[in-house]
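User: For a benchmark we're assembling, each entry needs the component sequences followed by a predicted structure for the full assembly. Here are entry 17's components. Please fill in the structure.
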Amino acid sequence: MTQDLHAPLELEGWVPGPDVPLAEIIDRAFDYRGNVTIERRDGSELTGYLFNREARAASPFVQVFDTAGDGPFTVPYADIRTVRFTGKDTAAGNSYAAWLERKAAAKLEGRPAPQR
Amino acid sequence: MAVPISQMWTVASYVLGQRLRGRRRYPLVLMLEPLFRCNLACAGCGKIQYPAQILKKHLTVEQCLAAVEECGTPMVSIPGGEPLMYPDISRLVKELVARRKYVYLCTNAILLKEKLEAGWFTPSKYLSFSVHMDGPREEHDEAVCRDGIYDVAAEAIREAVKRGFRVTTNSTLFDGTNPLRMREFFDQMMDLGVEGMMVSPGYSYAKAPDQEHFLRRQRSHELFRTMLERPKKRWKFNQSPLFLRFLMGKQDFECTPWGNPTYNLFGWQRPCYLLQEGYAATFKDLMESTRWEEYGRKSGNEKCQDCMVHCGHEPSAVDYTFGTWRGFRDTAVATISGRL
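Assistant: Structure for entry 17:
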């Protein structure tokens, strides 16, 4: 885990520093394609996939399916201390550009094209 | 054009009904995603990149039917994920057909032949298999990142056609597509006996200056103009001819982001099929609380500047067709003459 004041380009393993605004952390978590761990102000934690956030609601909240797939659990922003990016980023390295690079590299090395 | 008259009539009646009721915003096709799981892992596909516990989940048939009821569209498209991996797909389709919904089951067709042989589906004018085919053999296999898939899909199409099913194809095209190869591909699909084809540019979004946006859009127009210029009489497209004209740059439409609302495990996706900016718990909430004015090209939203995708622009073309005399006339002329 890395502790940072600002969001790194790769979020996997990111532990936001205390100066990063909570709304920004939650926005990043919403875009993240892996599980995260929500630290509540009461000390409890919830790990799972954060699939929704309503920052414009009268009482802003996030929604999460936990690691067992149960949910959705709704957690108000007001109850959240921070969010850690604890799960694997399932989108990392899966862009079309990355695929083309892998394919070109395989061709150069005389290997068969990688299959997915 | 290859949309059956009964389906065209249903859509026309629906659109006119919405307009008579004064509904400015109404949905046309529900994009129903019962699961995100897929048996392919196409590079860049944003639909399957989720943690394992999400990929294992799926909607119940009851949840699907409630969404269909809530939304009320005459057409339901079932993408995913791969819908043939949804264990209750047979029952879901039966229920939708019983409700006289026109169903487009969007599949990569890897499992199609097996499911047809197992008797999972019955031919109906309400059911069409919309097979994902991104071009000729080489291009398609590259797009789905696995060799041999084109041949598997082509065989499944033949089997479905032989058994009397409606079969269409859907092709997503990106920068670098060879328009002449695509013309050959259209011939190949018609040879397979499909009822019609659907084409759409892939979603293109980059934080780029306006000039680049313009070029991207221009490139799309050039591609589609070359590809669809003097279309052969035998080519049938299962989509609005005005949308095809839009792709060719001969007609302009603003996006209708509420036209193809998306429902999945997370709820009603805001604002559209491509952009995931949040989820509403109900369709009513989606329609009433989404800030629609923030989307579409005119809004200035950077994410929308290059987008020419069918899910936002085909509903605009359909609304224009059935909502204006000029649109109706243009569609009729293109349909009868076969010219775009």
